[in-house]
Amino acid sequence: MIDHERSLAIFIDFENLALGFPSRRDRFDIERVIERLVEKGKIVCKKAYADWNRFSQYTQMLHEAAIELTEIPRRSQTGKNSADIRLCVDAMDLAYSKDHINTFVIVSGDSDFSPLVSKLKELGKHVIGLGMQPSTSDLLRDNCDEFIYYEDLGQQPVLDPVLGQSLPEAKLKVFGLLMESLLALRRENKSVLWSSMIKDTMKRKKTSFNESYHGYRTFSELLEDARDAGLVELDMDARSRSYVVTRFGAELERPKPTSESGDFRSSRNQPARRRRGDSKRPVNSAHHSGNEPLKELPVQPPVVKPVETSVAIEEPAVDKPALVQPEPNADDDILFTRGPSR
Question: pTM of the full predicted structure?
């Protein structure tokens, strides 16, 4: 779920959520909830359960947020909350029938939803809880993968002061949306901020966003203009030839990290890989001083001595003629057999 976009299904137990309304001075605003959840992914289902006769002042606000209102009349005879049962049934039906929905958001603080959360996690779903602090049970909060308090949603992100000083009015809105989207991605622990990822987040936060409306032909031109204004720092991916935002806002004031595993580094900045079999060159450190750079000595090729081998060469057999003994001479016999002359 980290590598691809999440698909969210939101289930609101409005009766439990209303238990925290009396402790707040301001009026409950569903837009804060939606703006925070669109940062996590694409919302494909939104349902709210309550006896709307008791909460009729909130129905118009929820209807304008495209939330499906499920009417659950309150039964005082039995005392059971039928909204909780209906929410669990719909959530489990969606978990089994829609495989593309991988994230479930339970907007409630009731501890009765803990078995539902455990079952959704068994099915491989990511469960996010959201509720008001006075009406939230610790059992439900600790059982969810994430939990968001409604009281923390009203804090506006602190943007760069350049947005309110030197930028014209035409660029102030689009750059403000850009910075909010970058901060949202940082909250979701995104280390590499691709340009396509940033644009998708901007469109989720504001569905009518289009860079051509602000005078840019492409989204890359918008990022280049933000870089020229000193808001972001860009790098180019050597493979896809698309922009990646490495730093932005207050991050530009801090020194640039040199060796961090999470930071993006393009292939053109990476050192050349050593080939297999290459050896390191020796460093001449005999006459090295503290201020002089080290000199590298050339690598001497290894001396290979020839190996002497003795191979017995067999000469081909040649038929030699047999030696012919000369026949003895008759005079020689007489000379040897005769005695000395008298």
Answer: 0.61
